[in-house]
Amino acid sequence: MNPVFQEDLEHILQADFIPWERLSGKNILVTGGTGLIGFHLICSLLYADRKLGLGIHILAPVRDREKAEWMYRKAGAEENLRFLVGSVEELPSIPGAVDYIVHGAGITDSKKMVSHPAETIWTTVQGTRTMLEVAKEKGTARMVFLSSMEVYGNQQSEKPLGEEADVCLAPGNLRDCYPISKALAESLCLSYGKEYGVAASCLRLSQTLGCLEQREKKKERKIIQEILDDIREGTDIRLLTKGESKRTYLYIRDAITAILAVLLDQGNPGIFNAANEDSYSSVYELCEMAAHEVAKDRIRVLVEGRELPQYPKTNFLNLSSAKLRQIGWKPSVPLKNMLERMLEWGDES
To answer: Residue 190: its pLDDT value, please?
Structure first.
């Protein structure tokens, strides 16, 4: 096993605010299992099961069984993990109990959000409704919907954003189809709680950084992947935009502990931000830090300053995690170390 991955799994297991015993003998439904967050969550659950003997059973709906089996080939899943082929929009019937649900499936590619806005909305909203219907039918103890910091929209103040802050979204801007669909799905979760007694919480995740092994290299790489490649290859970082938007970040293992903290919390369901507040920086500042502190000034940052429709307009998403900290959660990895761990992961793969 990759040593960085191993260390992350052990850190998650040892987090003192996760009451693992509440998962003993439970059936857990996880969507989005072939994505970054879903994969790390399922592997963390399997790791905890092996170490603690919890008797967890995981059901993961996937569109591509072959891809899923390849991804989990080293996870030691055996009988603890079962794949269910189908889309979250039209999920086949689920036999047996479902004690907990983590719903993370959805479209995350920025270009697809612009080229397929209707599909983006439908996947999020109908997929969430499907999961809520499962939770309603099965009497699920708690569901967590993985939302996004983008729900806050076009914020022009740099004041910390709590969960009660007003969102600033524009239906006329098709790129906002993604955060609008997330906001609607959040409302759906809370509405199912009010009308049907479904205990569903929403977790607004900051931009989450981590590594995921892929069979094929993606044609469209996110900016973090490009920064890491530039550091490895010793080439200058080229920013297509001015990189003025500022946001908080979150390392993958801290995202997983946030999910588990909310999933196993026995307080009232609600909306929670998940962010490492100390990571708040602009895209340009992130690139400068990577070039100077991680690459040790071997590379530079070059700015083209274009405006591209697939990216949100310049905004400031300074998320506060005060509410999440109240239930015991805390982040563990600073921004610089996020990049260093991802580099180490790639070098060890």
So the answer is: 98
Residue matched to tokens 């906002």: 176
- Tokens encoding 339: 């990049």
DSSP-assigned letters across all residues of 197-213: ---EEEEEEPEEE----
Assign 114 a pLDDT band (cuts: 50, 70, 90).
Answer: confident
Please give the pLDDT value at position 241: 82
pLDDT at 141: 98
Q: What is the pTM of this model?
A: 0.95
Cβ distance 219 to 261 under 8 Å? no
pLDDT score at 349: 41
Parse the chain into domains and list their residue ranges.
3-215+248-277+317-335
Domain 3-215+248-277+317-335 has CATH 3.40.50.720: yes
**Cβ atoms 121, 180 nearer than 8 A:** yes
The H or E element containing residue 147 is strand 142-148
More confident residue, 108 or 140: 140
Q: What mean pLDDT do residues 317-338 have?
A: 98
Q: Please, which residues have CB within 8 angstroms of residue 194's CB and are 6 or more apart in sequence?
A: none
d(CA 279, CA 255): 14
Strands 301-303 and 271-274: unpaired
Which conformational region is residue 264 in: left (phi greater than 0), alpha (psi within -120 to 50 degrees), or beta?
alpha
Mean pLDDT of all residues in 55-78: 90
Q: Which residues contact 121 (CB under 8 A, 6 or more apart)?
A: 177, 180, 181, 184
Distances (CA, A) of 96 to 7, 27, 29, 140, 323: 34, 9, 11, 12, 34
The pLDDT mean for the chain works out to: 93
Count the helix, strand and coil residues of the chain and give each as a percent rounded to the nearest 5. Answer: 45, 20, 40
Residue 99's Cα: distance from chain center in Å? 21
* Residue at token pair 């998940």: 274
User: Virtual CA dihedral for 333, 334, 335, 341, nearest 10 degrees?
Assistant: -40
The tokens for 198 are 């479904």
Provide the token pair at 196.
């049907």
